[in-house]
Amino acid sequence: MNKWLKKFVCVGAACILGMALFTGCGADKKDNASNAEVLKVGVTAGPHAEIMDEVKKVAEKRGMKVEVIEFSDFVQPNMALDNKEIQINSYQHEPFLKHQIKDRGYKLTPVAKTVIYPMGIYSSKIKSLGEIKPGSVVPIPNDPTNGGRALKLLEQAGLIKLKDGVGYEAMAVDIVSNPKNLVIQEMEAAQITRALQDVDFAVVNTNYAIGAGLVPTKDALVLESSDSPYVNLIVVRTEDKDKPFVKEFVSAYQSDEIKTFINDHFKGSVVVGW
Questions:
Q1: Which of 86, 89, 100, 199 is exposed most, by the fewest CB atoms within 10 A?
Q2: CA 123, CA 129: separation in Å to the nearest integer?
């Protein structure tokens, strides 16, 4: 073989090998959060977003690039995750996630616990449960799991009685005793605080209560007990659950810095759940 041709073939082979090695290394690195493109994390507005802004700071100190995407309702973050528009979401408890998976067929998996937001009964018109008038309209969240949770809170407050054994999947038809003839009105969770001016009282998720300027530990007539099973979760697509970026992100969220922020910033209205 001509020595110049031989040299050309050797150089070409070396280039191809080098490109293959480079491509292979790049593929491996894409699973690592510190080398990946921007990690998009979905949250609902309010405390989840506030916490995630702090998580972003911790994550970026560790080499992860994070973009926080806010949603205005409980449905869109799972839809966006399933559609691969985001890589992680952090806003929901397990009963809600299970219901969404059953209803919509999502292949989503929880990978870590985050915080508990105790649900509360609020009013802009009365100061105690004893002031509740017969026939009062009571807005509660209209999604099945938070609706059942709200009914359990009304039962905890002694305002209604539910069928034995219905648990947190209770519905209005499961009410067996309603001494004050309360009118249960299902409503989009994010809209309930706006209705407080028009009703005697309402059951409100803590993230929306805080967003409306309410302080759960001070303003709630009744607050969900601390043993609530509704701890919130970090959720990913099932196909991603074992990837390194997930472990790295969970470590940033469950860091001492975030625990301190939650305790100092929310003063007990949001409780660390890990």
A1: 199
A2: 10
Q: By percentage, how much of the chain surpasses pLDDT 70?
A: 86
Q: 211-227 burial, b for 16+ CB within 10 Å, e for fewer?
A: beebebeebbbbbbeee
Judged by phi (left if over 0) then psi (alpha if -120 to 50, else beta), residue 204 lies in: beta
pLDDT tens per residue across span 41-89:
999 999 999 999 999 999 999 999 999 999 999 999 999 999 999 999 9
Domain ranges (residues) in the chain: 39-117+230-272, 120-223
Calculated CA dihedral for residues 235, 208, 270, 160, nearest 10 degrees: -100
Do the two domains 39-117+230-272 and 120-223 of this chain adopt the same fold?
Answer: yes
| Nearest alpha-carbon partner for 244 in 28, 20, 42 | 28
Fold of 39-117+230-272: D-Maltodextrin-Binding Protein; domain 2 (3.40.190)
- Which tokens in the block code for residue 15? 């280039």
Question: Reduced to 3 states, what is the DSSP secondary structure of residue 88?
Answer: strand
Output the CA torsion sign for 264, 97, 100, 66: positive
Q: What are phi and psi of 88, to 5 degrees?
A: -145, 150
| Pairing mode of beta strands 222-223, 161-162 | unpaired
Mode of pairing for the β-strands spanning 66-71 and 222-223: unpaired
In angstroms, the CA 213 to CA 241 distance is: 36
Q: What tokens appear for 157 in the block?
A: 């407050």
CATH, range 120-223: 3.40.190.10
